[in-house]
Give the backbone structure.
Amino acid sequence: MPVATAGRISGRKKEIPNRCGIAGTVARLAWALMSADERPILLAIQHVPWEGPHRILDACGGLDVHTVKPLAGQPLPDHDQVAGAVVMGGPMNVDEVEAHPELASEREWLAEALRREVPVLGICLGAQLLARALGAEVRAGEGAELGYAPVEILDPNDSILGALAPSTTVLHWHGDVFDLPEGAEHLARSERTEVQAFRHGNAWGVLFHPESDFALLEAWLAVSEMVHAACEALGDDGAAALPAEAEAAEADLLARTTLGLEAFASLVESHRPS
């Protein structure tokens, strides 16, 4: 789910202009031009205005990060044009294809990325889209899991999440859940949600927010939709306590998650599109 990018500026991040109606061959050529500096391209798929890669960008000095907004009509590139993808969050369910028909195309794109073993990191909605692309049902959980709480790591040797073992307090912000997809390895769980993370080949699905920090939470709480969700799930007092909880968790969370984000960036840098 949500990642606000307000106030975060990166010279590495380029936003792809809206190419609605442009022929596919022209779009492919545009991608080729944008990779002229020969850095591998990391695709960042963004679903809502307050959602972006945030701290993931800090690990991507060797990558050219391009953002695409499928729900705004921007087309996803051919798989051979990217070396990896991060898929961010949003409040919609993965099966709301009548309201957001682009989600169906995005699930198909992810299924092909999985087949090609393109490195993918899906966070919150991104994890749900990955699970759905692998055939798992995505459904409403028993109420929203929102706020700071521990997550238990089941594989301490995992390159992306292993540094969080045995457990770390992280930011949760989701309402939908899923079962472990067939063929995937179970990586994490919380008291409220059995499958918090999984790995399938070169793809990771993570329901919680390893990219979060105090600045991210602060930006989210400047968005009315996010404030409403927090108050509904936690009550006014619980929502008001979130900044202090973010501050208390930040040092440990940053130290543990940075290693995994850097490991994912290295995997993308070494991948050669097929």
